[in-house]
Amino acid sequence: MMSMNVNSLSSVYSIKEEKKKDSFTQAKAVGAGLLASQTVGMAAMPINMPLMGRMAKISSASDADAYRTALKAMIDGSALKNTGLTLIDLSKDKSVAKEFDRILKNSNAFQKFMIKLTNPIYQATKGENAAYAPILNNVFVDIEKMGASVFHELGHALNYNTSKFWKTLQLSRMPVQSLLIPALILTAILKKPKKDGEQPQGFLDKTTTFIKNNVGKLSGLAMLPLFAEEIKATLNGQKYAKKLLSPDLYKKVTKSNIYGAITYGVVLAITAFGAWVGNKIADKIREKAETKQA
Ligand SMILES: [Zn+2]
User: Fold this and answer.
1) How far is the CA of 171 from the centre of ligand 1 (A)?
2) At what angle do helices 215-244 and 164-171 cross, to 10 degrees?
3) Measured in angstroms, how far is the CA atom of residue 222 from the centroid of ligand 1?
4) Distance 1 CA to ligand 1 centre (A)
5) What range does the domain containing 265 cover?
6) Which of 56, 149, 178, 250 is the most exposed place for a label (fewest CB within 10 A)?
7) Region 91-112 average pLDDT
8) What pLDDT shows up at residue 259?
9) How far is 21 from 146, CA to CA, in rounded Å?
């Protein structure tokens, strides 16, 4: 009698201990997995920076006036004419740069780092990027430094202003990147892997197991519509650049757009890879904890 009590007591105790260890391992696995996928995801920016640098080298100040004339002709000769689109040439208009100076002055080191790394309008004020802001219907670009990339941005403006389909894809960028993909990654990382031969039970288990097993591919797939919208913007821009520019400048725009396409490809691949890595790391941590226990 006595020994049975002790046994059951100790087994209750060890179950409790095991549960504690389990949830500790789970927290460690989820935390490390999420951190890994985010860190890998952030790597797209530094990888793309040299490509952006090459894009900037294609444009030169001496071509700026030819670009300005062609861009004006594209706006006036297309559906953009009556949309209220404003092309803000940051080589002349310094108000946006001043606004960013003010924002940066009031930001902490981390905020400054994030603005410099991820804000395309800030990067445009530095002549390192060009950006279309759909809600404002504004294109931000320093035409002397990034003139060749504006046709692509006006291509985005055409997508937004003339097609419900492309407009919807454009506006889905934020929810896809900041909600859908993180939700896929979180689902995969939270899910414990199946043991050998163990089959998922029921709809929820089957769905989450599928997400876990395919999280890299699914994250890449979720980015595909955004990638398609980028390509469509380039095709729109190319059409007008070909008509309105000298063959030499048209070649430069094409080259700039190819570099641009590579940068979206990098973002897509890195997003998918980050999701895959995060999930793998979470499982590795669980596996290690299990072999330690065994
Ligand atoms: Zn774009």
Assistant:
1) 13
2) 130
3) 17
4) 76
5) 37-288
6) 178
7) 96
8) 95
9) 55
